[in-house]
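Technical note accompanying the year-one report. For the benefit of new consortium partners, we illustrate the data format agreed upon in the data management plan: each record pairs a sequence with a structure-token string. No post-processing was applied to the example shown here.
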Amino acid sequence: MKKNLIPISVLALAMFASANAKEKNPVVMTINGQDVTRAEFEYFYNKNNEQDVAEEKTFDEYVELFVNYKLKVQEALSRGVDTTKAYIDELAGYRKQLAEPYLYSPEWKKQAVQEILDNKKYEVRAAHILISLEENATPQKVAEAQAKLDSVKMQLAAGASFDSLARVVSQDPSAAHNGGDLGYFGPMQMVYPFEEAAFSTPVGQIAECRSQFGLHLLKIIDRRESAGEVLVAHIMKMFPRNVQKPVAMKQTQHFIDSVYAVLQGGADFAKVAAMCSEDQYTAKNGGAYPWLNSSARFPQEWLDVAFELQPGEISKPFTTDFGWHIMKQLDRRKEAPADSATLAQLEAQIDRDPARKAHYAKLQEDKWMQAEGLKVNEKMLSNKNRNKLLMTIGKQKYTLKQYDDFCAEKYGAEAEFVPQQQSLDAWKRAEIFAYVDANLADRNEEFRNLYKEYHDGILLFDVASEEVWDKASADTVGLRNFFAANKAKYKWDKPRFKGAFIECADDELLVTTLKHIYDNCSDIQECANQVRAKVLTDSILTPNPKQPRFHIVNGLYAPGDNNTVDREQLHLDIAATAPRSNMPIQMTYGRVLADGPEVMEDVRGAVVTDYQDYLEAEWCKKLREKFTVVLNNEELNKIKAAQK
């Protein structure tokens, strides 16, 4: 008897949980057998009310609109729209865009900003050896580059000098003369993989990373606290080109000394810099640079002076390889303020850094692996039975064959060149992403509703186009019949002018020709055809066809549309407006329609819109006959009461 106690209690618990879930999220309607929950209905209802609509609907009216919407979706499903390749591809594209902000925690960007702010407190000096490698290199090329780097590591382990190896082996062109020494640098001055390795590796240790430039071997030479930031301005006299530095210094020293004497006499530094400095980048700003730290990419002697000065102090003339300089320190600070503007700027920079984003995406994937209980039995990797279990994520099971298939698809014939741990890690990340992505709708109500909206919206677009939108535009006979049956609806309370408004140059021959055409032609469209045939092709009337000396607008003019038409045709008390200087002659040809349109084309836009509404209403009637609609009025009334 005791054996039955556990299954019965589990069943009771499951039934209670199911009933409790339904109580919290009851069904408010059923369309063609498909349930719509309160949560889904309220999502669409609240979203509709938040939007700025011209005509606010009552709750009952919205229920009718929502039912019609769901009926159209059912019609699309009955036609198999959801099985077409075009639909599947379009929905997949939308889903990928929608899912990203829900998959990756928005906190990652704050973490990335904090990492930068923390690293800004320090500067790292590192040397590196680069083995060049294209970003999309094949696995074989990667393996070959890695073998070269491993050879360098072996030589270092045997006692070889990093400096000497860098000069001989590194494919960074600067290594030949600097031994790979990059000097001091701060965050966001190197590509992210290099920065991350440099700032996370202890002094004296060697690290390895891969960037878009290739494989790097880094030796961390020093790490120091940042000297803060300075705001400086300078005046520069460039050395003449192709002249030895000692000679160049002598040729330009008199100039820089005279500038220094002027400054010593109390002259304004910014004004002197604007007049005398040959640094075109800064001279227009009074010689000023933005805030700089001590690892900025400037000659070391230039930076030394910048940080030795005190605010307001002006240096004596000094030289770099580029020329003479006189510098003034404008201000200094320990570190940049973490204000909203600075944080926004850092976030914008992060958005443009795919390598940094990829790093934080991996951290998120690591969290998923732990949260979802991903487990790999690596002992099984050599098992010949490829149907054996290799990995589990939650209750999902993955076999060795699935791992093999992944490697074959990702790496192809070059899979043998990929280290097993690398391919296994890539597979784990691909599968954990797919697992979390597949369960996203079940775990996130906001995403589920948004995805459902896109899913249904794309579904009904094609059928609605076919039944309403395209049909209304293309059905000329139906439009005319609809207009004839509803002509009274399109009457207007004030006369309108139907015809042409003409502007043209003050040229007697051109004016006479246009008047002759319009005086002897009753149909406005035929007049336009004659203008194209007789005026635009005449080199005397139209010397430059790309810039005709006249402008004609055909149409239906309501009061207020055109001052000239209002005054001359509708006889309204409208003040004259100055014509265009190059087209001072204005004419109007046509007739006044007293109380309504002559033909459907006069109000085609309005008729098409109304005809669409008519077709949609008729279509919805047919859909209600085709599909069953069951409303849970008790639950709908609860929602209605909650809105008051």
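Partners are asked to follow this layout when depositing records. Residues 445-474 form the longest helix (30 residues).
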